[in-house]
Amino acid sequence: MSFLYLGNKPVVFYLGIILATLLAAQFITVKIGPRKHFKLHKSLGYTIFIVACVHAITGLMLYVL
After folding, report:
1. Which residues span the domain enclosing 37?
2. Which one-letter DSSP state was computed for residue 2?
3. Where are the transmembrane segments (predicted)?
4. Which end of the chain is more exposed for a tag (fewer CB within 10 A), N or C?
5. CB of 10 closer than 8 Å to CB of 3
6. Contacts of 6 (CB under 8 A, 6+ apart)
7. For residues 25 and 36, is the Cβ–Cβ distance under 8 A?
8. How far apart are CA 44 and CA 57, in angstroms?
9. pLDDT mean over 19-26
10. What number of helices (H) and strands (E) belong to the chain?
11. Element (H or E) spanning 16, and its range?
């Protein structure tokens, strides 16, 4: 399997950092209150959607080129 690389690090590495940050943010918001927890879930859904779109576009570009 070939991975996309940004500099000398694979994209999976950056995705791992983003995921870890989101998980940390989720734990922090759980402690703050339930309202903000719901807000985070909404933004988390949007984030996943955007990442999926970007992933699909880059994959398509690699396939075309």
Report:
1. 5-64
2. -
3. 12-32, 44-64
4. N
5. yes
6. 14
7. no
8. 20
9. 73
10. 2, 2
11. helix 11-32
User: Of residues 6 and 56, which shows the higher confidence score?
Assistant: 56
pLDDT tens digits, 27-57: 665 565 566 555 656 677 777 777 776 777 7
Domain count, the chain: 1
Please compute, for residue 21, the number of CA atoms within 13 A of its CA located in the half-sphere on the CB side: 8
Q: Tell me what pLDDT residue 15 has.
A: 74
Give the Cα separation of 28 and 36 in Å (integer): 10
pLDDT for 22 beyond 70: yes
Q: Which two tokens stand for residue 5?
A: 């690389």
User: What token pair was written down for 14?
Assistant: 């950056």
Report residue 46 CA to chain centroid gap.
Answer: 10
